[in-house]
Amino acid sequence: MPHLPRDRTPPDPDLTALRVTLARLRNERGWTFDELARRSALARRTLIDLEHGRTTGSVTTWHALAHAFDVPIEHLLGPLCDDHTPPGSPGP
Q1: Is 14 exposed, middle or buried (0-12, 13-18, 19+ CB in 10 A)?
Q2: Cβ(80)–Cβ(15) below 8 Å
Q3: Is the pLDDT assigned to residue 22 strictly greater than 70?
Q4: Three-state SS string across 15-76, please?
Q5: 70 vs 4, 9, 51, 59, 88, CA distance in Å?
Q6: Cα dihedral angle (77, 57, 46, 43), rounded to 10 degrees?
Q7: Kind and range of the H or E element at 90?
Q8: If we measure between CA atoms, which residue out of 30, 27, 87 comes closest to residue 77?
Q9: Is 70 exposed, middle or buried (CB count within 10 Å of its CB: 0-12, 13-18, 19+)?
Q10: In sequence order, what are the residues at sequence separation of 6 or more whose Cβ sits closer than 8 angstroms to the Cβ of residue 15?
Q11: What 3-state DSSP class applies to 83?
Q12: Which has more confidence, 50 or 82?
């Protein structure tokens, strides 16, 4: 597995894009937080905190949301790299 040079740290993830994606998917379906909680088996408070940026959740949380929305998990997590080139992408 390639390593970053010691003087280079990875860019920060775009957490705003992550929560905007969650809100967009929920709103496109017309789901309330209660409906998404029912479909994902996650707590309503967790969903509210995710959308409002108070928490980032875990891989398990995003996995449950991907299943609830019936989308690949990459669809939810991809926006983390919206403001930079994702790792493993071909260079310019």
Answers
A1: middle
A2: yes
A3: yes
A4: HHHHHHHHHHHHHHHCCCHHHHHHHHCCCHHHHHHHHCCCCCCCHHHHHHHHHHHCCCHHHH
A5: 34, 33, 18, 16, 25
A6: 90
A7: none
A8: 87
A9: exposed
A10: 53, 56, 80
A11: coil
A12: 50
Counting every residue written for the chain, the total comes to 92
Distance, in Å, from the CA atom of 87 to the CA atom of 13, rounded to the nearest integer, reads 12
Q: What is the DSSP letter of 84?
A: S
- Kindly report the number of other CB atoms within 10 A of residue 77's CB atom: 17
Q: pLDDT class for 84, splitting at 50, 70, 90?
A: confident
